[in-house]
Amino acid sequence: MNIRPYTPTDWSRVCEIHDAARRDELAAAGLGDAYLTLAQTANNEGFHEYEIRVAERDDGHVLGFVAFSPDELAWLYVDPLSSGKGVGSALIQAALRETGAALSAEVLDGNRAALATYKKAGFVETGQAHGRMPGNESFAVTVSELRHPGLA
After folding, report:
1. Which is it for the CA torsion 129, 114, 42, 30, positive or negative?
2. pLDDT tens string for the chain (152 positions)?
3. Which helix (H) or strand (E) holds 22?
4. Would you identify the CATH topology of the domain 2-148?
5. What's the pTM?
6. I want to staple 6 with a disulfide (CB 3.0 to 4.6 A). Which of 14, 52, 128, 132 is the partner?
7. Which residues of 87-121 are buried (b: 16+ CB within 10 A; e: fewer)?
8. Does an H or E element contain 3, and which?
């Protein structure tokens, strides 16, 4: 597996991954009706303002992506067909290596698989927050707030 910077040619594959994984994520949180595609929400949520990395197989097939800032891991999605194979963990480690700093993250309540992946990578739960779903504010959400101390 190779982790590399996102390019605009990755957009359609990143949308496919997000959209498939997002359905699963929302279903686990009991929020299936809140589903919107990445194409519908990317601009409103500032997706392209983050540093974005993709994980790909040796043949160039993209398996997942991570989007982060110097202090936040904001997006982490893996193709459901590649779930449980270390793709998410590799993307988290790539973001941590690049920032070297403490990172925060949020996981929707009910998304046990994501929470386990973050904890395995060294994130610690620091609390819960309640609010409106970014990108689809008509839905109330509860998230676990997480923090990683950084690699520095």
Report:
1. negative
2. 999 999 999 999 999 999 999 999 999 888 889 999 999 999 989 999 999 999 999 999 999 999 999 999 999 999 999 999 999 999 999 999 999 989 999 999 989 989 999 999 999 999 999 988 877 888 888 999 999 998 86
3. helix 11-28
4. Aminopeptidase (3.40.630)
5. 0.93
6. 52
7. bbbbbbbbbbebbeeebebbbbbbbeebbebbeeb
8. strand 2-5
